[in-house]
Amino acid sequence: MDQNAQILSRIGQGDKAALAELYRVLEKPVYRFILSRLNDPFESADLLHDVFIEVWRSASRFEGRSKVQTWIFGIAYRKVIDMHRKRGRMTVTDDIPEVIDDSADTEACLAAGQEAEHVRHCLGTLKEDHRSAISLAFFEDMTYGEIAEVSGVPEGTIKTRIFHAKKLLMRCLEGRVQRGAAA
Amino acid sequence: MTRNEVEALMPFLANDTLADAERAEVEAAVAADPDLQRELAALRVIRETMQAEEEFSPGEMGLARLMRSVDAETNIAANQPRAPRTWVWQIAASVLLAVVVGQAAFQLGGSDPGGFELAGGDAPAFTIAFNADVAETDLRNLLLDANVEIVSGPSALGLYGLAVLEGTSSEEARALLEASPLVQSLEVADEP
After folding, report:
1. Which chain B positions have a beta carbon within 8 Å of A134's beta carbon?
2. Cα–Cα distance between A73 and A126 in angstroms, integer?
3. How many independent structural domains does chain B possess?
4. 20 to 30 Å CA-CA from A28: which of B8, B115, B116, B178?
5. Final residue of a domain: which of B32, B52, B72?
6. In 3-state terms, what secondary structure has residue B80?
7. Can you tell me the ipTM of this complex?
8. Does residue B25 fall inside a structural domain?
9. SS3 B163
10. Mutate to test the interface with A, among B4, B53, B66 (most CBs of A within 10 A)
11. B70 — contact with chain A (CB < 8 Å)?
12. DSSP class of residue A87?
């Protein structure tokens, strides 16, 4: 049993100190993931709170079929979707994006990829599920299997999302560099 | 593995999470294709840039907020099971009080046969609620000390009507009852 699973087991028995321990371990990555989806620090803080409340309520029902981290990111993922649905901000993404035919200029992507502002901007241009897949892959270094588990979709769907998300991200970065050079 | 499959797995080569067999295939494809090599380099840089971003998370403030919510939730949960116990207690208390009233009627009946009736007879002088953890002995002693009797109740809210017996003024009884730690609330009853 991994360390987080042991902590979660204690939470399931009503141990508040264990909840605080798990919060300190996972608060930053979960918050970062939520923020990457909502782009609003206040909403993200509220949702982070809701995620850990749900962890507190549901810990005793954790069956250990996945890593604790994956389970908690799954809670966060669903709460973000719920919030988007409530506000009518949900976008369907598993259709084929418009501009994915040509390869992006990878040299330009390499240059733009070093600039946090460009990366942040281009991540923001991605649709919800594309951004989520890229965030989990690059912020959290998850496998595609773990991302599929968090997102509740087949692995093939994640590969497709990543494929398109990567193309769109690199195309956006390329455009940032080209526009900068032209300006 | 097709070209598209290789491309789909490139981010997972960049974050170093591919299983051995897939990694070998993708690495072989990358080794043979300069475009894929440049793409891999770009993806690694993007990943590093993302991970280097400092986010100001709620931190300890968020934890304090979480603990407040958990405490509130725990308190609610702890109080909920008490409801049935209170209900049981009210039934038990009403039975015990009926015994007290009956006993008092029996003890005092000889000296004042016309002045004592069971609950429901006299108009109550006070409406009273007792604390949930009051022992029957303490309750009986309080009623005897204050020289009052229960004439109605318990209501759905656990309220009893008390009448003051002869020899004691309402003010004396009220002062004694109000001073008792057994009493949760005491009000002067409305005139009938």
Report:
1. 11
2. 20
3. 2
4. B8
5. B52
6. coil
7. 0.81
8. yes
9. strand
10. B66
11. yes
12. T
